[in-house]
Specification:
- By secondary structure, the protein is α+β, with helices and mostly antiparallel strands.
- It contains nine helices and 15 strands.
- Strands 9-3-6-5-13 form a five-stranded antiparallel sheet.
- Strand 14 and strand 15 form a beta hairpin.
- Helix 1 packs antiparallel against helix 2, helix 3 runs antiparallel to helix 7 and helix 5 packs across helix 6.
Length: about 350
């Protein structure tokens, strides 16, 4: 069941109910998803050299909230991370803001998301530099999610951390102790203090009643390539997979999700227009980067990463370029060649 067909079916009711909450980014996402893989997104002109067949094939929209375009993004991320792969334990640290801050986060998305990145990453960096911990510079990749498994608004940051760091003074690699990175209670305490201080500097007033204990989850996710493959599926799934939309009847949509506490499948049913909003509320502000690299995994630290890979005896090979998809001729099944592209009519102005 395609998200685009559901948006098309419930678009009038959706706009009537949520018009006051819609932002330009939501409207752009709607337009992109409805045009995806239709002539409205532009077309490729294909030619078969065997039987001279020619045809036009619609393009994907490429929007990061379109479920039909998520697989390619996940593959590209996995390609980039495999080029940085280290034969070490990997950890995923998840920083979650309490529910009392969600209204503030929704009203000031760009500012609060930036502060979430800055404070979470800064906390991890300082823990790594602590002589009682690693006494080393660590690398990490941070990914922002704004949804829970039930698709409710729930901003949190996943940070993937290789188990070790580089001591810049001695130029030595410092390895973590087994399957332990940092104490998550201590991480949560420092993260809480820093985010609240950052909100004050940004002139944002949090609610007066906030919990004393915040949640930071730090867990071991595997070693090397298998860990990265797991993370690519987990972190780059879209807001919802179309395979999990199981019913659309009597003006209501039902989708399936996995309960994080029990691991069991659960189902949620709501009006079609409410389902559309549940998905579209997670559209990020225009230009906001939801994935960021830090430390020796940053693009500007290529030389340092190579030094670490040599230290850990990693075989460095050129990263293969992911090939374009091959289109088969409908008449003779031979591969077709792309001759050019036809821009959509709406973009010609």
């Amino acid at each position: 069941m395609q998200l685009a067909s559901l948006i098309h079916q419930y678009l009038v009711a959706f706009k009537a109910k949520y018009a006051a909450q819609l932002l330009p980014g939501h409207l752009r996402a709607i337009g992109a998803i409805l045009r995806c893989r239709t002539p409205g997104s532009g077309q490729m002109l294909l030619h078969c050299s065997e039987c001279t067949e020619q045809l036009q094939h619609p393009q994907s929209c490429g929007h990061r909230n379109c479920p039909q375009c998520q697989n390619h993004e996940a593959s590209q991320w996995l390609d980039r991370q495999q080029a940085k792969l280290l034969p070490v334990d990997y950890f995923m640290v998840t920083f979650t803001i309490p529910c009392e801050l969600r209204v503030l986060a929704w009203r000031h998305q760009t500012t609060l998301y930036q502060l979430l990145f800055a404070t979470a990453v800064g906390t991890l960096k300082d823990f790594g530099l602590n002589p009682k911990q690693l006494a080393a510079d660590i690398g990490m990749t941070a990914v922002l999610h704004t949804h829970s498994r039930r698709l409710d608004y729930h901003p949190h940051l996943h940070v993937i951390v290789p188990g070790g760091g580089i001591n810049r003074t001695t130029r030595q690699w410092k390895k973590t102790r087994g399957k332990f990175l940092f104490n998550q209670t201590a991480l949560a305490s420092v993260f809480r203090a820093r985010l609240l201080a950052a909100l004050k500097v940004a002139d944002l007033t949090p609610p007066s009643k906030l919990p004393d204990q915040w949640v930071v989850d730090c867990r071991h996710v595997g070693i090397g390539a298998p860990a990265l493959k797991y993370l690519s599926r987990y972190l780059y799934r879209g807001v919802i997979s179309e395979n999990n939309i199981v019913a659309n009847q009597n003006g209501k949509v039902t989708f399936k999700y996995i309960d994080s506490n029990t691991g069991q499948s659960r189902y949620r049913t709501l009006k079609g227009e409410d389902f559309v909003w549940l998905v579209l509320q997670h559209v990020l502000p225009k230009g906001f980067r939801r994935v960021r690299d830090y430390g020796f995994l940053h693009g500007n630290a290529r030389k340092l990463l190579v030094l670490i890979q040599l230290t850990l005896k990693v075989m460095i090979t050129a990263r293969p370029v992911r090939p374009r998809p091959v289109f088969s001729c409908p008449r003779c099944r031979s591969p077709m060649r792309i001759l050019g592209f036809i821009r959509p009519a709406w973009s010609s102005g």
